[in-house]
Amino acid sequence: MNAHTAIRTPDAAPVPGDKPDVHAMVQHETVLSPRFYTTDFAALDAIDVSSVREEWDAMIAEMVSDPNKLHFKRDVRFDGIIEQLEPALKAEFIDFLVSSLTSEFSGCILYAEMARRTKNPDMKQLFKLLARDESRHAGFINEALKDAGIGIDLGFLTKAKKYHYFKPKFIFYSVYLSEKIGYARYIAIYRQLAAHPELRFHPIFQWFESWCNDEFRHGEAFALLLRADPKLLTGFNKLWVRFFLLAVYATMYVRDHARPVFHAALGLNPTDYDYRVFSICSQISRQVFPVELDTDDPRFRRSMDRLLAASRRIDAGKQRGGLGGALLRASGLVGAGLSFARMYLLRPRRNELPAKIRLQPAW
Predict the structure, then answer these.
(1) C-alpha to C-alpha distance for 31 and 278, rounded to whole angstroms
(2) Nearest-CA neighbor of 248 among 165, 330, 170?
(3) Which InterPro entries match (predicted)?
(4) What's the number of domains the chain is made of?
């Protein structure tokens, strides 16, 4: 459940008590919605990982061994569990599952296409392995949805979604962060439910620990790709690093605050949870990024809350409609832009890149 695709905005959330139209949900297009990507496949042929070859080969060997090959086998039935949830929790949990499935499946489609079209043997092998894992994740989530009678036709999803072009370096930045923040999100939820098993309202959470280790391992691959090409982490590209860090954090903050019932059921406060995840992600990303955002800065946190308030004004404007709604939306858009700019212009922390790149999922 990663974020090479981002999440859906609150205005598209399902209505509590309704049986959601999941195909409409996954087709919904906004700035924050799940997206499918395409890229410059020829550029993959020029990638050279020789400068990180030792760590690269060790990582590939680990992925080939497929540590989670037998993990995604259900030993409990999911039938009827989603239907028994109270309506608001059911709606937000389904939204969580659908956006997660779309994210995983979009990664599968992109990686499979990369593997098919590149002539670079290192890239071909890597992206085949990544596509294998993402397909497995998407299928597992879809089985949980099917048990509730709302599974998604993944073939339909492939044809229905629009595709957006991204340069390879932008895919590397965003997917690295998506995989690592996906790990941080999963492990934080897993640790919470390990301490409070009475809050585990669906069996799928039992799979989160090993699942998030897949996310971590995928992030390691993109860390090595970024470190293999030093220019991606120097000069003007540092500004892109800051942009993607902030975009991923801001997207997560808006999304999680749109699911208050879901987080309350897990015993989590969305604000505290998000800043815990940001902290873990910042610690991890020191392996590859020369800068990190100071998410503890009170100015950062005030601006993030202003961004959330602006997002809610945009949503309220859409709901209201008419001239009043248009003005409210415009106010929200301006507020969101200003809040994002304030956070972006805060001085980041500097980071000395370590000689050894790879990490272990020890959080």
Answers:
(1) 21
(2) 170
(3) AcsF, Ferritin-like, Ferritin-like_SF, Rr_diiron-bd_dom
(4) 1
Q: What is the pTM of this model?
A: 0.86
Residue 358 lies in a domain: no
The predicted structure's pLDDT at residue 12: 39
In a domain, 5, yes or no: no
> What pLDDT, in 10s, does the model give residues 32-87?
344 566 778 788 889 999 999 999 999 999 999 988 776 777 767 777 888 889 99
Please enumerate in sequence order all residues whose Cβ is within 8 A of that of 70, keeping only pairs 6 or more positions apart, or say none.
none
Closest CA to 85 of 256, 199, 186: 199
What's the chain's Rg over C-alpha atoms? 20
DSSP bridge pairs for 350: 291
**Rounded Cα gap, residues 12 and 82, in angstroms:** 20
Whole-number Å distance between alpha carbons of 101 and 153: 11
Q: Which domain holds residue 139?
A: 10-297+346-350
Please name every residue paired with 36 in a beta bridge, in sequence order, or none if there are none: 163
DSSP code at position 197 = G
pLDDT at 13 over 50: no
CATH code of 200's domain: 1.10.620
Please check whether residue 138 lies inside any domain of the structure. Answer: yes
- The answer to whether position 323 is within a domain reads no
20, 82 contact by CB (below 8 A): no
pLDDT at residue 15, as a whole number = 45
